[in-house]
Amino acid sequence: MAESRTVAVIGGGVVGVSCALMLAREGHSVTVVEEGRVGHGCSWGNGAQYNAGSALPMAHPGVMWRALRWFADANGPVRLAPRELPRTLPWLVRFLRTGRPRAWEAAYAALHDLNHPCAALYRDMLGDTDWKRLFRPNGALHVWRDVSLSALDERVDSLRTKHGVTFERLSAEQLRELEPALSHDYKRGIYFPNSGHVTSPPALVEGLMERAAALGVSIRTARVEAIEPGTEGITLQTSTGSHRCDTVVIAAGIASRDLARSLGVSLSLASERGYHITMPGTSGAISRPVTDAASAFVATPLNEGLRIVGIAEFDAPDAPRDAKQNKKLQGYARAMLPDISISQVTDWMGVRPSTPDSLPIIGHHPRHAAILFATGHGHMGISGAPMTAAIISDLVAGRAPRISNAPYRLR
């Protein structure tokens, strides 16, 4: 077991709480510092799915032309606020570079290594009872309205096969055998049997936190205003006073960007705001996550209802919500599931901390080894959290990480 340290984890989302649990299991004294409620930030409103090789980096060969079409379409899934352009432009340049074939393939390989063990790691972290309560390993579907495979589709198939991902291409008839309520406009799909979803994202984080609390992890409800490295540890200046510790893990989502800047580090994180609607009483319409690949939205059946998640809105984290996005998501829901009855809708907006290459940032501060980052998971926090926590626990212990963290270095 590693030498025991006092560790502060900044951020109470699925990544931060996973880190806290794994660190506590190694005998460290851990405090989660979270301004709001644990599990009620970006982790509360996500698409609830975990993937085993189904997710791709957002940037891919030909992405520029697809992005331009989306930006030009008022009903499309991407919006860039003009006021955010100066801050987002360098990120977009790096994003387009990731779309080059070699960089894209390397990013996919690193995503696969990080994400594919997540179900087994969660089972170990939660135990069988809670895993079975929270996880639905029913697979996942991606669907298309066009009939023919593109050159990119064939390239993606080859890449997934190379990395041992199990998937099956489906015809329109096979799609509706699996999910009868889907629109007949969908002509083909892919089924990923090793993917699935959780029944409630906040319940997942709460379950992890309960396990962590049983090992002595505490919660400090506070906003971190400054991180002060010193010769004998680190001091956090918070809204409720100072907090001393040996090691800090920054897992604060988009707020990690400002914390890093105060420490002399520029993280390439974009404020990519996502929206969802949830419709109570309609979760039985489908039995697994379904992704409309062309329109970039996901429908997932949750305990509280059917959730539709989509939109990539590049705007300041604290900018007002765009009320039009709710109606847009309702339109997406009707297009996918034409017989669905939408009588009651709740909506939400949260900020994804997104990197240009879709790879999270996991590793030490370049000058302060006792400060680590675990942030930038974008759309894939549920999938990436367990292995991120494993890497962080290895780094804190001074061990070689169980998978190399080189692809996730600060950049």
Concise structural overview:
The protein is an alpha/beta fold and 411 residues long. Helices cover 34% and strands 26% of the residues.
Structure description:
34% of the residues lie in helices and 26% in strands. The protein is built from 12 helices and 21 strands. Helix 1 packs parallel to helix 9 and helix 5 packs across helix 12. The longest helix has 17 residues. It starts with 5 loop residues before the first strand and ends in a 14-residue tail after the last helix. The mean pLDDT is 94.
Write the layout of secondary structure elements.
Elements: E1 6-10, H1 14-25, E2 29-34, E3 49-50, H2 63-72, E4 78-80, H3 85-98, H4 101-115, H5 118-126, H6 128-134, E5 135-136, E6 140-144, H7 151-162, E7 168-171, H8 172-178, E8 188-192, E9 196-198, H9 201-214, E10 218-221, E11 224-230, E12 233-238, E13 241-245, E14 247-250, H10 255-262, E15 270-279, E16 290-292, E17 297-302, E18 305-314, H11 324-336, E19 346-354, E20 361-364, E21 371-375, H12 381-397
Parallel strand pairs: 1-2, 1-14, 2-10, 4-18, 6-16, 14-21
Antiparallel strand pairs: 3-9, 5-9, 6-8, 7-8, 11-12, 12-13, 15-18, 15-19, 16-17, 17-18, 20-21
Which range best describes the helical content: under 10%, 10-25%, 25-40%, 40-55%, 55-70% or over 70%? Answer: 25-40%
**Tally of contiguous helical segments:** 12
Instruction: Give a count of the beta strands, DSSP E runs of length 2 or more.
Output: 21
Alpha carbon gap, first and last residue: 31 Å
Tell me the Rg in angstroms.
21 Å
Overall shape: it is globular
Class per helix and strand makeup: alpha/beta
**Largest β-sheet summary:** 9 strands, mixed
Low-confidence stretches: none
Beta-strand share of residues: 25-35%
| Average pLDDT | 94
